[in-house]
Amino acid sequence: MAGYGALVRDPATGRVLVELAAPLGKQSNNVAEYSGLIAGLRAVLDIEPGATVQVKMDSKLVVEQMSGRWKIKHEDMRRLALEARDLCAEISQAGGSVDFTWIPREKNKDADALSNEGMDGATVHRVLTDGDATSEAAPESETAPEAEVTPAPARRWGESLRLLLVQAPLDAAATPRIVRAVQRLVGDDASVVAADAGLAAEVGQHVATALGGEARTSPDWSAQAPGEGADEQVRTAYRILVERGGTVVAVTSRRGVLSVLTEVLGIADDRFWALATAPGSLTAVEVWDEGSASVAFTNRTDHLA
């Protein structure tokens, strides 16, 4: 089940003004993220229509789409984005402004806790007074807008994860074959994550375009953390995907693929490089809603022949 959480904060004092959460039933992560954004913007209009608003969220996709840098291809997302833009326009017409900033998930814990309430079926609309407990104040060095909207990352507890790992190829000429192979294995509702540089980023963008969306690139999937064995940043990114569920394509390096595989299979560090994976290969991992995981296949390369 999906749910969103969002809060409106006065960053000059750090005081939370409004807390919001609601269940959404069976919806995609992107729909949940846009729903949290819309709820937060509506709350701002209720408080002060002419506010200067800084929207902070961990969804690179929503931030880039709302900033006009990425196209919106899915109809459901386009409808929600238009609704969010209409709310931004109302704020602007009242003398305010709205800017969007990406933040890492670990800096979004208050809103994340609200999203858990939504996923548990609760509908929350708390307007807090001066006497209510508040979160820590924002640093004094920040330029303080009148309102800060922080939608929580969308999460869907109790939903299985289907993860297709794509090892970045050595040659860009292999990209079309990789894209066609991925399309045969996943549906249009799959999301795409990728390392933020090199062929992994390029392949991720091509795969996402073919699926009708945008890739979320992140250094978490680059597998460049110090060390010779498993990359803990990749493993952390994988665990976040497990929490959210759904169908995901992740484009990473050989070390990134092995970091996930060895965690799923419980392989000791001294055997980390024992698994064979080729550039451009596909590996599938399934994590069931009760937490058990299995590897459907590894090192599939028939599409490269």
UniProtKB/TrEMBL annotation:
Compositional bias ranges of the Low complexity kind: 134-153
Record region (Disordered): 133-153
Lineage: superkingdom: Bacteria
Pfam families: RVT_3
Domain RNase H type-1: 1-128
Record-given protein name: RNase H type-1 domain-containing protein
Native species: Terrabacter aeriphilus
